[in-house]
Structure formats: structure tokens, C-alpha cells
């Protein structure tokens, strides 16, 4: 039987395949053995191991189940996300993996509509703007738009998470993509606020210095009730699991919610914008 030599330094996909082979062989399994356990064909396993086929999210999660790596720092899901979303800020691909399993999601955003609430058209305009500025490639723009859809799809579960979104007023007043794109995006916000597992609030300009957060923040409550935070600046992203720094952010978020408009008043403001009234 011919055995191809793998070079894990050739590409991220090659490193994924080499690691897969190493773990498989450490257990004494053939490709057929792994294929049966992962519920894939041996041809598929071989193609991924030899970097002839890129890994998918579903395949990576199957491997994590088989090898007992679910939810760990060494999971294949995490490696897959780093391969697919390498243009994103550090920590964000890992955050997305946790987001797909969270029981509560809290977000604060400034300037743009949060990704979980974006329409495809709005997401596309933002991504293409990055291409025009030379900040990302067209391929990376496609990845970002796909990631928005992937994150939203992960929320559709038998027991969906509670999602709390507080947006600075700038998010709804900043025009993106022209009138039709923005009107559809505002309509999406109104629809989203009607869901039973969501809470949408606008933090109005008038709260001034009482706005407790000055950067976008994402807070996740996981099934074991632990809380992790992800925050980013223009150039850096950081995933934080330390209670000493996460808990103050959670407190600041709750304080911001107390200052923000109620959901009913927030929706009324959005509807006024759709009608063209200040």
C-alpha cells in the first residue's frame, strides 16, 4: 500500500491533514476505521489527509466527536475556522465557535449593525468597501459574508440562545449601501426584535458620558454558565476567559442596558428612521 509523505508546512490544509493522520495512526485506525466512526467515506478521509480536499465545518465537528476534542483548544473545529477565516482578527474564529454553542449572547456595537443582525446585502457592502480600500482581497470579502450567514444559521436550533443586542445610535443612523439596502436592514432589525429569544436596545447619543462601553464587546454565557468575552480594536481582537476581567465587562454591559432605550422605544426610533423622520 502506497503511503504519501505529508508536509505539514506546505499549507494550513496540509497541516490539518497531517495532524489528522497522526491522530488516526496513534489509535491504530485505518482510513476505513475512521471513516466508519466519523460517518464519512474513506475516500473523503484520504482526500482531506492529503490536502486534496479542504476540511469542512461538519467534517471537523465529526472528527472532534470521534477523537474526544469537542470544545477544546485543540479541536479540529478551531483549526478549520483558522484556515477558513485567517483574514479575521486573532481570536475571532475561536469566538465564533463558542458563539455557536452559547446559551446567552450579549453584544454591544458602535457604528455598524452587529453581524448577527446584518442582511446579506448590508454585509456585502461592508465587505466590498474593504476590498476597495485594499484592506482585504475579494476572496476574503466572500469569506466574511459567508461567515455572517454561518453565524446566523448557528442560532437556529431547537433551543436557541437568548440574544441581547445593545447598539449605539450611530449604528442605525450611519447610512450603508444606499437607501434600499439601509431600509431593508432597518426592517430586519424590527423583525428580529419580535423574536421571543431576543432583546434589542439602542443606546442614544443623549446618554453621553453615561455610555459605559467605548469599544464593541461580545459576551457569551456557555452551557456550564461560564462567561467569556471578545473585544476588538481596529487592529487587534482578544478572547478573554478570566473572571477578573470578564465580570467587569458584564457589569458594564448591564449598566449600559439600564441607560439604553427600551426595546419598544428603540423599535419606534428605527421605524421613524425608515419613514425619513429624525
Automatic annotation (TrEMBL):
It holds the Pfam family DUF5753. InterPro entries: Cro/C1-type_HTH, DUF5753, Lambda_DNA-bd_dom_sf. This is Helix-turn-helix transcriptional regulator. Residues 20-76 form the HTH cro/C1-type domain. Transmembrane segments: none annotated. SUPFAM superfamilies: lambda repressor-like DNA-binding domains. It comes from Streptomyces sirii. CDD domains: HTH_XRE (cd00093).
